[in-house]
Amino acid sequence: MPNTNYLQIADDEASTTISQSVATEGVGFVDGKIVPIAEARIPILDRGFIHSDATYDVVHVWENHFFRLDDHLDRFMNGIDRLHMSIDYTREDIKKILARCVVASGLKSAYVEMICTRGVPDGNSRDPRRCTNAFYAFVVPFSWVATPEEQKKGVRLHISKVERISPQSVDPTIKNYHWLDLVRGQYDAFDADADLAVLTDRHGNIVEGAGFNVFTVKGDTVATPGTGVLKGITRKTAIELCAQLGLAVQERDVPTADVLSADEVFLTTTAGGIIPVRYVNDRKIGNGGSTTSLRLRDLYWEAHRDPRLSVPVSV
Ligand SMILES: Cc1ncc(COP(=O)(O)O)c(C=O)c1O
Predict the structure, then answer these.
(1) What is the model's pTM?
(2) Does the pLDDT of residue 19 top 70, yes or no?
(3) Which of 56, 127, 215, 291 is 20 to 30 A from 275 via CA?
């Protein structure tokens, strides 16, 4: 029997109690209501589902604090705007909804996704302007691109021959669900006995992988693709931390050869932070050490105690 005792976020902001049955598997926010994740459903005709006509963002909660929430909201609101979408909720409303979802889940560390879809068309119309855009969110336990144990063993990265969808077709700086190329790359990686794939652009420069950006370290210089990628919030943090360490950062084209000859390679993602890579295409990177990457990883987790970046989850 469906549970009806959910936290309601009504227009007037009146809320009821949080259901005891809302489990730590997560919660969803659909149609203005917080529901258990297993009951969070979207309409099948929502163009977000049938055409990937959507934008989204993922912020994480670590030890009961949102990390860089304002940066994630800036990127999300900008994406909504650039896709000619709009939602009834203000930025402050979204903050409140996300915090309520986290509290409802009971999770202290979590993966928090906010989504804006084109929505369901009016009647049989094919005109995207005749849709009411929808806002959804969900909170699930923190999820890792590579778990701390996998990171310890050393991540194996595969440079896939799959070309990332052109930025002239889908703007990668608007966070989107065009992932079929990334998923193809993942299968390439599995075939090559690797953990993760990074895709290339049409000129053979590396771009990004399924949920992460890529950096190389050579001497005192760190490089990361400057275009054709999502401007990750973790990428931003890594760039700031490199500056703190006195490393030069180049945002530029990164040819495959630079990755193979790098002293170190690391990945950045909300889902796991700064992840050192040990192998690329079966080749051990540098001398197999990850001094700079590990230093950056430590600083990244220390930054979670900086009140300018971490804000408590409070409703
Ligand atoms: C394609 C892509 N690139 C990079 C990233 C990393 O971005 P962030 O550091 O904001 O998580 C993501 C995150 O999901 C992504 O989907």
Answers:
(1) 0.94
(2) no
(3) 56
The CATH class, in words, for 148-304 is alpha beta
**Protein residue with least CA distance to atom 1, ligand 1:** 211
- The pLDDT tens digits for 58-115 are 999 999 999 999 999 999 999 999 999 999 999 999 999 999 999 999 999 999 999 9
pLDDT at 12 over 70: no
Ligand 1 centroid to Cα of residue 183, in Å, is: 14
Residue ranges of domains in the chain: 7-141, 148-304
Find the 21 Cα to ligand 1 centroid distance in Å: 32
- Residue 265 has φ and ψ, to the nearest 5°, of -135, 135
pLDDT score, position 155: 96
Which numbered atom of ligand 1 lies nearest the CA of 234?
9
> Distance from the CA of 46 to the center of ligand 1, in angstroms?
24
* CATH number for region 7-141: 3.30.470.10
State the Cα torsion 145-147-153-154 to the nearest 10°: 20
Ligand 1 and 237: CB distance under 6 A: no
In this prediction, residue 5 carries a pLDDT of 36
Four-residue CA torsion sign, 266, 221, 58, 126: negative
* Residues 113, 196: Cα–Cα separation, whole Å: 22
Reported as a single tens digit per residue, the pLDDT across 119-131 is 999 998 999 999 9
